[in-house]
Amino acid sequence: ITITHITGNSSSVNVTVSSTQSVLFALRINDTDNSTKPIPMNITVWTQLTNETWDWSTTNLTNSSGYLNYYFAPNCSYTPGENVWYAESSDRYYDNETTTNFTVTINGTLTNYLLEPSGQEVLRNENVSIVVKVNDTCGNNITDANMSIYMISEKTGEIFTCAQINHTGNGTYNCTFNTSNNGGVIMPAKGYTIEINTSKSYY
Question: pTM of the entire structure?
């Protein structure tokens, strides 16, 4: 037999807790002895959990047209990144054939939780401490996120940037705004909106 890739290489899909998002891996299987599609046969697909480990594999039957249609739906067992997948014929009535390696990009989602402040009033000349926790789709603490924190004056629209953000452990980050000298500027009185931007590769 021959196995021809149809779709799924260089594809992408998001991790979800309950495998609610998927991407199609499709292969065409041909019986080269008879130049026809084989009767429904077993094809097994493996996908990397991480760069070093593989999943438990999934075996499906080809359809009546000789196609394997496998909807890959990663859950929290899979690590975001560019992962490899491949397929192998696993039917005892046919020769074993293995595909080349294909890739699928598995993406996670970041969520920021503002822990502090929470509506407090601060006098000018006092520091404002911002504390943020970052988790991914699966509730894992993200300890190496790229983060920017801004305080936006509701009075003037001025945007003040946190100069130094520190990771203090367990996905928690903090920074301190000096209200009387933020980059040489006195921060205006009245309310502020806090904006947090977080990024990481494959998220």
Answer: 0.87
pLDDT tens, residue by residue, 148-196: 999 999 999 999 999 899 999 999 999 999 998 888 888 999 999 999 9
Q: Are strands 110-116 and 127-136 parallel, antiparallel or unpaired?
A: antiparallel
Per DSSP bridges, beta strands 11-14 and 102-107 are parallel
pLDDT in tens, 81-106: 999 999 999 888 788 899 999 999 99
| Pair of tokens at residue 138 | 């699966």
Q: Is 113 helix (H, G, I), strand (E, B) or coil?
A: strand
Please, are residues 106 and 79 in contact by the beta-carbon 8 Å criterion?
A: yes
The type of residue at 142 is: I
The amino acid at residue 78 is Y
* Category of 50 on φ-ψ map: left (φ > 0), alpha (ψ -120 to 50) or beta: beta
Starting at the earlier edge strand, list the strands of the sheet with 146-153: 159-161, 146-153, 192-199
Residue 109 CA: distances (Å) to CA of 50, 93, 150, 170, 184 = 17, 43, 21, 17, 36
Strands (E) located in the chain: 2-7, 11-14, 23-30, 42-47, 58-61, 67-72, 81-89, 102-107, 110-116, 127-136, 146-153, 159-161, 166-169, 172-178, 192-199
Dist. CA 56–CA 45, nearest whole Å: 9
Residues 138 and 17: beta-carbon distance below 8 Å? yes
State the number of CA atoms in the 13 A half-sphere of 124 facing the CB.
10
